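Ligand: zinc ion. Inputs:
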Amino acid sequence: MADADDAELDDTSFIEFEGMPALSRSTFQLHSFAIINSIKDGRPGFVSDDYLNAIAAETTTAAVELEAAGMWERRDGGYFIVADEMVKMAINFNEQSNRKQDECAQRGAHLPPDESRKSGWVVCDHCGTPLERPDGGPVALPNGGPLGPDTRKEES
Ligand SMILES: [Zn+2]
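Predicted complex:
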């Protein structure tokens, strides 16, 4: 359960999850991003040195902290995520969104949310694909399709 103090967390705060050691916020963020990236990479649970080197932020301290906490283990060319509960959750979430997007495509329509628009964003109630958005970015293709192309002009 989140308590009201969560809103006041800053970069020096520590985050504790059940069964997990306390980590600094930036370290926890790296852990989360690394998991998502490892799945996109097709190597769930493996954080490559290339990925860590590509991140603009300083990652060495965080990696050391995660290793010291027993959450990451050094392997050839990167780290293996020992604390894999979040990896499993992220994989499930990924598969679930893929499945829901397929269901919308088969239905031939997305499901607009019931609630009134607050922000100008309308996302499919089922799969979460944006249907309308104020920033001109990509929206779902017709007939329950996936996210369309980004028609915004790239500045060059
Ligand atoms: Zn949908």
